[in-house]
Sequence to fold (472 residues):
Amino acid sequence: MPVLCSSCSEKRAVLKRPKTGHSLCKACFFWAFEEEVHRTIVAAKLFRPGETVGVAASGGKDSTVLAHVMKLLNERHSYGLELMLISVDEGITGYRDDSLETVKRNQQQYELPLKIVSYEELYGWTMDAIVKQVGLKNNCTFCGVFRRQALDRGAVMLKVDKICTGHNADDVAETVLMNILRGDIARLRRCTAISTASEGDGVVPRCKPLKYAYEKEIVLYAYFKKLDYFSTECIYSPNAYRGYARTFLKDLESIRPSSIMDIIHSGENLSFREGVKMPVQGTCSRCGYISSQALCKSCVLLEGLNRGLPKLGIGKHHRLHEKILSQQPLTEREERKLKSVDF
Amino acid sequence: MAAPVAVHLEFGGGAELLFDGVKEHHVTLPSQSEPWDMKQLLVWIQRNLLKERPELFVQGDTVRPGILVLINDADWELMVSPWSHVHCQMMWGGFRCVLLCMREGSYGRMPDMCNILSVDHQMISDRVT
Fold:
């Protein structure tokens, strides 16, 4: 017996919504999914008419659904936004080059302008070259730090007012868990925020319109809409600790689907004791990007790569910042510590 | 005796990586005394099609959390209850089953402890200073 849609009671249901438990047909699901994103956008006042908004596009399911829904809602509800796609080319052969092809097709399909910024052009290093030097151990640190800045640089080049990213409810819940597990209070405090405040020059505000959208629904939305997306694991090992948190979350979800929303709810409503030590936000004295140290993470990592000391940005070497800034040579002992690459 | 069942299997969203990258499979399940159900289909897939890392595909007697299953283009959670128990009679002569992995990252290599420690250490240093 096919289950009927609990909303229109006419058509055959195609999915059970994890958030509400409702069984919906294709048309009712599309409508519910899109209008929930719309409500999220309106309730959090994410955009203002006339703004130029960059959609961070990786070619994966989340950003493809985001680009699709943003274009659709912009027209349906007359947001008056000018949308663009921004992609980062990390320089990973066989992974990013393929997914960028997807982004290029998306550009045609959605008729949106596309800007690709590459690590090579920004930093002079591709991820392939970085992995060659640092090995497979800390490469995700380089990639993550560089990507964040690369998106900002792309956004500044395109002169967009805001960037929206495809982070979904599962991602946010996972990040809450991760920050609890790491004891990272500063990040725990801000990770559930739907948008970042303007943090200074060169940093474009970001927001997550899919913050309350379940991964399951995003995958099924893309599947039923036959959206063109790319899915392959990154050829370089993903963040292992996050992998555990992810598996744990998926296990919880299979027993109790609301756990994802519950974790987000908990994260949003945490209050923090006064006097908890927080990093003081400043700017990098080399590139001007936000940083809590004399040098931003990206500049330290880059310096390490260029000096052949890949471990410089991994771990605690803040006391070396002064030396780097004044271009002093490091002592032999310091160099030895930073050189060793173990596989 | 249940007659052989023609099944159109499709793997997507990264799940195909466990099947040599092959997304579509047209298979025929042999006749057997009991009617085929999803539980048996999963075992059959594991024995006959799965190429690597079974722990990323099955957990207990169902699919690993994070893999979506569609039967004739409808979410199988509509047909089974409660959430974890899998029992779906295959009443159709031929049917289509799609298994979608929700996120590519789930198929990453299993972590080694060194990696965890080094990531951790870096986070702590970020926080303390």
About this structure: Chain A touches chain B through 54 residues (CB under 8 Å). The two ends of chain A are 56 Å apart (CA to CA).
